């Protein structure tokens, strides 16, 4: 990111420019602000901004004098002048001090965006020109990978080709995507790597790569990911030697870092305009780690189709709830392990697997709502989706679900032995297992050997809702899920959740969801 110093004597305008211009979207951070040229000059050496946006007319020291002095301190800083005075004398004076641009008040956002892009590009070109060859290539590779616009990416590819004039564009090349992930445990250990810190990994990797690869370029695009571009060697044994190199590197890296290392390799490509495609292919191979239990070297030949399916995991939720309630840790882990083994073996698409996990956790949370409102109330603040969507593999998500269930199992075991609570839990299980039947309070009372009025009282006391309200909530939630299946008629959905009278079902559904079943389908499908 580039940095900017904003200089403006009007407090309101200064605040507006600092806080209401989307600087982050522009790839710029606000290093600081000042109310006049003298104050800004005092901050210049400390902040070292890439860009200065300064008003022309200010007290004590105006923008033009400040600009002249700023250029004496840092000849590379880019200065943009801002003024409400559309007069030639100001523009001419600004141009004489090598102004990077000139904006009129009030600021037009489109003009600001366009000018900032030009200034950033100029900054980057000067940075590249002032660095060594290896540094330039690494930065160019980063920009090629990150640039979403094909036309702009083509410009960076052109500069890349110029920087590699010693390697012909017809030379075959490949890309490796190397990622470093924490071991599959939740919560993650706060301990540092037993070997080198992340900041030293690039240098470590570079020293190892020199043994086999030539003219390679490493780009650190993400905190825990490196892309390695390298020209392929000629000769019949080159491919085997390269494959052996990556396997050896994986072994050595795993001995140096307390992390799970995955190396995704692209196919051979020809033509520098294929670099972005090669990087995407290497990343796709690396993403295959979602189905792996440990580090690996993965090639395009290892990739297989994934299955996009939203299968019903309700029975898994029921079994997990039962195991948690009974305190059976072994059964809890067996059910979780079986679910994630299915994800891996059937190669369930990552997004579909994540959705299945979220639905599973929601179902369990719903059953233990009273527990979560008590000793585990802090658990309600956790955003499960944000937590698991950032995880790189099934193994990491499995560890999260195991931790989640163990928290519930422990809390449930430590809960005071309460007969009424046990009865309430049993009522909840009966409803969860038989909501699709024409269930009544009287039938439930017979199951628990108590009177209907008594179980109504204790259930409301323990959960804050009536038995009928709880039963209705379970039925309507299930109906909402079933309505997402267009092949089912509303009548079939009603019967599947325990309502014989379709009109009554529609009335209850509208009361709870604010729309009829058919309207619900139109809104959410």
Q: How would you state the average pLDDT, rounded?
A: 85
Unreliable runs: 190-196
By CATH reckoning, the class of the largest domain would read: Alpha Beta
**Envelope shape:** globular
CATH level-4 homologous superfamily of the largest domain:
Reverse transcriptase/Diguanylate cyclase domain
Annotated CATH architecture of the largest domain? 2-Layer Sandwich
GO molecular function, one term: DNA-binding transcription factor activity
InterPro entries: CheY-like_superfamily, Homeodomain-like_sf, HptR, HTH_AraC, HTH_AraC-typ_CS, Sig_transdc_resp-reg_receiver, Tscrpt_reg_AraC-type_HTH
Keywords: Cytoplasm, DNA-binding, Phosphoprotein, Transcription, Transcription regulation, Two-component regulatory system
Organism: Cohnella lupini
Short description:
With 525 residues, the protein is α/β, with parallel strands linked by helices.
Task: Write out key terms for the chains shown.
525 residues; alpha/beta; Alpha-Beta Plaits; six-stranded mixed beta sheet; 11 strands; globular
Your description of this structure?
It is a single chain. The protein is globular. The strands form two sheets. Strands 6, 7, 8, 9, 10 and 11 form a six-stranded mixed beta sheet that branches. It has four domains: 2-128, Rossmann fold (3-Layer(aba) Sandwich), CATH 3.40.50; 133-302, Reverse transcriptase/Diguanylate cyclase domain (Alpha-Beta Plaits), CATH 3.30.70.270; 313-411; 419-524, Homeodomain-like (Arc Repressor Mutant, subunit A), CATH 1.10.10.60. By secondary structure, it is of the alpha/beta class. Helix 17 (419-434) packs across helix 19 (452-463). It contains 23 helices and eleven strands.
């Amino acid at each position: 990111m580039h940095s900017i110093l904003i200089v403006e004597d009007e407090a309101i305008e200064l605040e507006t420019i600092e806080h209401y211009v989307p600087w982050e979207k522009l790839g710029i951070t606000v290093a600081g602000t000042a109310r006049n040229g003298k104050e800004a000059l005092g901050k210049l050496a400390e902040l070292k901004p890439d860009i200065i946006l300064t008003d022309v007319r200010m007290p004590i020291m105006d923008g033009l004098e400040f600009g002249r002095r700023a250029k004496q301190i840092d000849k590379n800083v880019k200065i943009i002048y801002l003024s409400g005075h559309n007069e030639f004398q100001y523009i001419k004076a600004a141009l004489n001090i090598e102004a990077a641009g000139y904006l009129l008040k009030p600021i037009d956002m489109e003009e600001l965006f366009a000018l900032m892009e030009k200034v950033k590009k100029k900054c980057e070109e000067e940075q590249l020109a002032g660095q060594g060859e290896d540094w330039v290539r690494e930065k160019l590779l980063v920009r090629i990978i990150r640039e979403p616009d094909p036309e702009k990416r083509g410009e960076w590819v052109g500069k890349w080709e110029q920087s590699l004039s010693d390697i012909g564009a017809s030379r075959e090349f490949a890309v490796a995507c190397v990622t470093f992930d924490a071991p599959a445990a939740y919560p993650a250990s706060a301990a540092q790597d037993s070997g080198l810190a992340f900041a030293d990994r690039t240098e470590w990797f570079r020293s190892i790569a020199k043994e086999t690869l030539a003219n390679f370029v490493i780009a650190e695009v993400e905190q825990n990911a490196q892309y390695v571009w390298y020209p392929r060697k000629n000769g019949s044994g080159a491919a085997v030697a390269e494959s052996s190199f990556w396997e050896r590197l994986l072994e050595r890296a795993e001995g140096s870092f307390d992390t799970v290392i995955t190396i995704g390799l692209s196919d051979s490509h020809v033509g520098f305009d294929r670099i972005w495609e090669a990087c995407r292919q290497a990343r796709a191979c690396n993403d295959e780690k979602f189905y792996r239990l440990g580090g690996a070297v993965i090639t395009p030949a290892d990739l297989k189709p994934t299955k996009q399916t939203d299968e019903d995991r309700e029975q898994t939720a029921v079994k997990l709830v039962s195991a948690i309630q009974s305190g059976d840790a072994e059964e809890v882990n067996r059910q979780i392990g079986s679910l994630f083994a299915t994800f891996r073996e059937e190669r369930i698409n990552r997004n579909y697997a994540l959705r299945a996990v979220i639905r599973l956790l929601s179902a369990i949370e719903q059953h233990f709502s009273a527990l979560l409102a008590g000793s585990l109330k802090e658990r309600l603040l956790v955003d499960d989706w944000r937590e698991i969507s950032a995880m790189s593999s099934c193994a990491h998500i499995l560890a999260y679900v195991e931790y989640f269930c163990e928290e519930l199992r422990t809390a449930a075991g430590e809960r005071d032995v309460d007969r009424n609570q046990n009865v309430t839990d049993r009522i909840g299980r009966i409803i969860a297992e038989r909501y699709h039947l024409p269930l009544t309070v009287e039938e439930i009372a017979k199951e628990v050997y108590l009177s209907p009025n008594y179980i109504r009282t204790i259930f409301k006391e323990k959960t804050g809702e009536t038995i009928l309200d709880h039963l209705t909530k379970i039925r309507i939630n299930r109906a909402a899920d079933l309505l997402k299946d267009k092949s089912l008629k509303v009548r079939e959905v009603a019967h599947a959740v325990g309502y014989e009278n379709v009109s009554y079902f529609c009335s209850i559904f509208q009361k709870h969801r604010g729309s009829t079943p058919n309207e619900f389908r139109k809104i959410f499908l």
